[in-house]
Structure formats: C-alpha cells, structure tokens
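#structure-requests
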Amino acid sequence: MCGICGKIDLFGTPVEKALIRRMCDALAPRGPDDSGLFLSDHPDAEVQVGLGHRRLSIIDLSPAAHQPMSNEDGTVWITYNGEIYNYRELRSRLTARGHRFRSDSDTEVVLHLYEEKGPDAVLELNGMFAFALWDSRRRRVWLCRDRIGVKPLVYSWDGATLLFASEIKALLTEPGFRREIDPKALMLYLAFNYVPAPHTIFRGIRKLEPGSSLLLENRRVTIHRYWTPSVTGESSEPLEPGGVQSALVESLSAAVAGCMVADVPVGAFLSGGIDSAAVVAMMARHSARPVHTFTIGVPGEPRYDEADAAQQVAALYGTDHHEFRIGRTELLEAVPAVLAGMDEPFADSSAIPTYIVARETSRHVKVALSGDGGDELFAGYRSYLGEYWRTRYRMIPALVRNAVIRPIVEALPDSRETRAGDTIRQAKKFVRAAGECEDERLLRLREIFPAPVREKLVKAGNGGAGPDPALGWVRALLARVSGDAINRMLCTDLVDSLPGDMLTKVDLMSMRHSLEVRVPLLDHRLVEMALQVPGPLKLRGGVTKRLMRDAFEPLLPPGFARRPKRGFEIPIAEWLRTDLSHLVDRYLCEERIRDQRLLEFETVQDLVTAHRERRTDTSWMLWNLIVFEKWHEAFCGA
C-alpha cells in the first residue's frame, strides 16, 4: 500500500521537483518506508511529466521494488498503489513470453502487462489498485482504479495540466490552486454524509470512479468504465441454496488465499459479525501458523461490545488474538485526530473506532484482512429487509396504513441512544418510504438530512434551490443497474456508498497508521457470483444475510451465525449534549454560520435546539455539520 501523485504539463513547462516532493510529503503516512520521484528528462519536450511515490513495503521489500518504476529501456514509468493478488500467475505467463524482471514486485508485472496489452491490461488484474502510467513513446498518461474502488485516486484537469494523487491534500500543494466549494457536492454531502464519486467538495477536483480508467492522449482526456457489475439475480433454472452456499465458501477461500500473499505479517480484523468470522475461518484453512486477529472491546456498552463473540471464533481457530479494551475516554481522545485527517467532509462517525483499531493493529502487523462488502453483497442492512417486507406491508389497506399505522409510528419518540428508540427511528423510515416510488424510497432510506431540511439549510446560490441533486443522483444510480428490487438496492450501494463511505473510511483511517487493509469479500469474481443470486434468496425467511449465515454456520461456533447484526456506532447523540457539546458551540455558532454565508443559521439553530431539548434526534445532522465546519476551517481558512 502506498501513496501516488504526479503532474503532467502539455505545454512544455517542466514540472518542478519541489512540487512533487511536497505532494509526496502530504502522503507520507501512506508510505513511510521509502519515497521516490521521476521527472521527464527532455526539457524541450512538449509534454512534461513528474511522478511521485511514497512506499509501504509489502511485497518485495528490497530496493529493487523502488518506485516510480520503469521498464527496461525507460520508456514506460509507473507509480502504483495496491496489491495484485494474481501477480505470480501473470508474471509466469509474461516470463514465458520473453519478459525479464528485475524485482519480485507486483508493480513490475503491471508494467510488462501494459507492454503486452496496453490499457486492456487492467482486465487481467485481480486486486485493489490505483496507479498512473506514463508511456513516453505514445505520449500517453493512463490512470486506473480497481473495479470496486478499494483504493482512491483523485485528479484535476484544466485542459493544460493534469494533477493526480491518492488524496486531495496532495493536489492542494500546487501553488495557486483555487479552493472553491462545489455547490452540488455540498448538497450531496448533506444528503449522504460523504461526497460520492466523481465529485469532490472542490469544484476543480474529481474522483476517478471505481472500475474506470483515464487516458490523456493527443491533448484529450477520455474516461472509460472498464468494469460494471452485472446484476441480474435471474437464472434459467432455480438456484438451490445449498449449491450457492458451497460456491460461496470456495470462492471466499480462494479470495482469502490470494489476500494472504505478502512478505510481511498478515492479520485480520475480527468483530462479532459473520463476515469477518468467515474471513478468519478461511485464513485458518490456508495458514500453517496461528492467524493474528484483532478486536475492539467496549466495556459497559453491550450495544456495541462484541468482544466475547469474537473471542469464541478466535478460540475455535486457535488464533493469536489481540483484544483492545477501549472506553469512553479513548474514543473521545481520538476525535480530534480523526477530524484532522479529513481532506474533504466525511461524517461517518464509525471512523473513530476504525481509527483506533487500525492504530492498535498496526503495532503488530502491516496487513490486515477485513470483512467489508458482505452486507452490500448478501443483504446485511435493515434497509434491504425493509424492501423485502414492503410488498407484504402494502397488502394492508391504504386507509389503515395512512390513517392508523403511520400516525401512530410518527407520534412515538425516536432516538439512537436506546435500542427501542432506534427501532422506532427505523420504523419511521420504513413507513415514510413504503409508499414512495423506487428512487424516492431509496433516497429516504439513505439520506441524513431530508430534502425539505436541505433546501432550508443551504442558502440560495450554494445549491439550496432548484431540483434536488440527491434525488437526481439516486435516479442515475438506479439507471445503471438491473434485476429484482433487492439486488438493485444492493448494487447501488456496491457502486456508490461502499466505495464512497465504507471503503473510504477504512482507507483513510488505516493509512493514517501505515496499515494495509485487504477485502477478500470484494474479489471481483466473488462479487460477480453474488450478484447473480436473486435478492429474495439472500433474505430467505426474512433473515438478513441468510446465504452467508447458512454457508458458514458449520465453520463457526454454535449459534454464532444466527447472532443479530450490530453496527459499531459511537453514542454521538449523547456526546453532542455532553463531552462534545463544545463542538456544537464552536462550529455551529451564529457568528461562524452567518459570516460563512453558506448555511441558514435559523435552520441550524432549530436542529441544535431540537436535539438539546430531546424533541427529536438530530445528532447525525449536527455531526454532519460539525465535520463540514471543521473541514472548512482547516481547508478554506474560516
């Protein structure tokens, strides 16, 4: 795992070495083991190139794997971040065709594969990656990001220069870069808690979308989506659950085996959930030594503490288990560091425990496997269950639904602070969304600020007037997918919220501690298999993630696979009234909001008052605004 950056100038202005060094320095935590840069050495050339790299050594720890790396004659250069799990197979084939290698790295395999196949080389790569390649013979720049979007890649293109990097902060080291907020991105952030690709919070910076590549050639930039998940959930013959379960176990086993390839110690995050437990079970199958496993325990918080369940899996497989017991103090102490690491607004509060577990894990291993992706592939979230039950709910006469059930549910007090209150909150979302059409229903289930609140919150001219960007965004996502209703929901999360939220969170927090996290459940072959399974089969009997539970139940402790899902959320509602109330006072005060001229203070004040008086739980909205204001202070100077 590494950090990459670079600049390409199309009008002959040499790239400054000092700029590439500044960009690399901004990415230092991503690669503390080595750094390097390449500058094109033809001062009179029309195209000038600078590439930078920060290295976290995982495969081939020797200097031979130093980057940026070139082919034998120095005509092709690459700066690369990620891991190619099938690189040994590809290397063997390339060697048989006459290619000669100077290192044992997967990076060099990408170089030689490009020599053979050009940009089509990406179709043969199995892994997580983001890279930039400069082909001096063709005067071509090729940027590429992995199919699922595990690794990030951002860029800026103004028609004359192309800047790119693993993180936005590296691009901002370019002198004179205009830090203008994109109004549409702001509205999307308020809706979803993150800024979805290809947008970033800055008008002049874009994210390269998952499964896409960018070619700069003949002074033109073209973006090509080389991989799109095929969602049908249909088969000419009925699928037998037992056969699907066997295929799932063997597919995950193969994916885990590939993810365990490294020249440094490899471990695994182990929660009390089925996904990480299944990954550990497969790791034990492929390891001759005890697997290193890592768990967070939260004493006194039964809603979040899954340490005992994780210990059962660790004991079953004899892992070298590390349990980090953290309390309220440790979580609160991590908040400033987490907020300081965001180079665009990102308000998923579970980044806080993720930061802590990554920090503690990095003291023992350089690579950790996680169970991310299982919920999006096999229907682990309650929103999918809501879609499953929606048809049955709508069998109730409309008069009863609208005149009896909904008013009663709406009148009940909701809160994230108790299990009962959170159930009511979810019930409100369900009854509000049940009568909507597909796009509006999906938005209702995902949004943080409801559309009317967003419209009141953002000043006209900053995105608060006109058609709702969030609804347009959801409609565009749905237009990309097919299949039954549940699989359509799953796939919109797979292509949007998974890379935009979950994977971004893990990448940001793990890279702060120079820890590489691999996600075997997101091996694209396993993803493609999972998306052919009908949605109702994944929720058979009204049970979330039914296929995963049934497939791995024989490999886990008795009763483990039937445990209810628990997300790891911090008690943000309580904290914003107690330990973190100073953040509300500082970042949502009248003077700041009015001087900034982006948000309507009266709406912000209403949200604060409603939460402090316990009229309704607006804590996630407040946290969203605090994160934005903290980011704005750090990156926009106010």
